[in-house]
Amino acid sequence: MTARLANQTFANRRSFLVASGVGFAGLAFGRPGVAAPETVVSPSKPAKSTILFFLCGGASHLDMWDLKSNAPDDYRGPFQPIATSAAGVQISEHLPMLAKQAHHLAIVRSVRGTVNTNDHHAGYYYNLTGHAPDPTFVSLGNNRTPFPDDWPFMGSVVAAKRPAHPELPNAITLPHKPSRLPYTRPGQFAARLGVEHDPLYVDGSVDEPLKFVAPALSLDGDTTAQRLLDKKDLLRTINTARGEFEQFGITQTWRQQQERAVS
Fold first, then answer.
1. Which helix or strand (DSSP H or E) is residue 241 part of?
2. How far apart are CA 153 and CA 24, in angstroms?
3. Interior angle at CA 121, CA 169 and CA 124, nearest 5
4. Whole-model pTM above 0.70?
5. N or C: which end of the chain has fewer CB within 10 A?
């Protein structure tokens, strides 16, 4: 797979990381000559964070961003295009408010599939890592679980390259992992970067995605704040006693050796 990717025209790794850190502004993926914004205005201040909205099973690209109005009826979408605030860019008639903000967007229309599995698994991986799926996505289909040597999630890559935040994880995924049991979608983990670079997964309710809490910031079951403090006090007492026992053991061993030496 590496050799095949090396022969394709993609942005280099440094460009990808830089663009990821500033919201992918001005980065052109894929083949040269594909439609891209005519001008890109540099932000007045460097971006401090990036938010990726990944629509799991969302509206079709054909119905939102690229309606192909000049294509035959069998290929084009059912909706009409409308002009936007970006010169030469049209989007769906059902996105009039977004059309007013189009000059802030960099719409990528050059992503293409190289491994057709006719399911979401390969698409998740391709979109979340930026790397073409390997042949196991064809042979295993939806049973293709995440592998330790997979390419990492782009959020993990950016987080690994940025200085650690003083209070928060560098990468957070919410409201739940993009998959439902028994399937686990590849591409959402740090993989070959190491589990220490996995995002913090804030698992909320699939039915009520706006209701969630950070798992590391909540107490389980009937555990209260006072009970947690009591446990910490008990742990501190045990650790102190263990140190004293270890020191006692060392002293006893020294005394035994001394007695043997003079006997």
1. helix 225-262
2. 15
3. 40
4. no
5. C
Q: Which carries the bigger pLDDT value, residue 26 or residue 240?
A: 240
pLDDT-wise least confident of 24-33, 41-50, 213-222, 239-248: 24-33
DSSP 3-state of 172: strand
Query: Can you tell me the distance from the alpha carbon of 258 to that of 263, in angstroms, rounded to the nearest whole number?
Result: 9
Are 150 and 189 spatial neighbours (Cβ–Cβ below 8 Å)?
yes
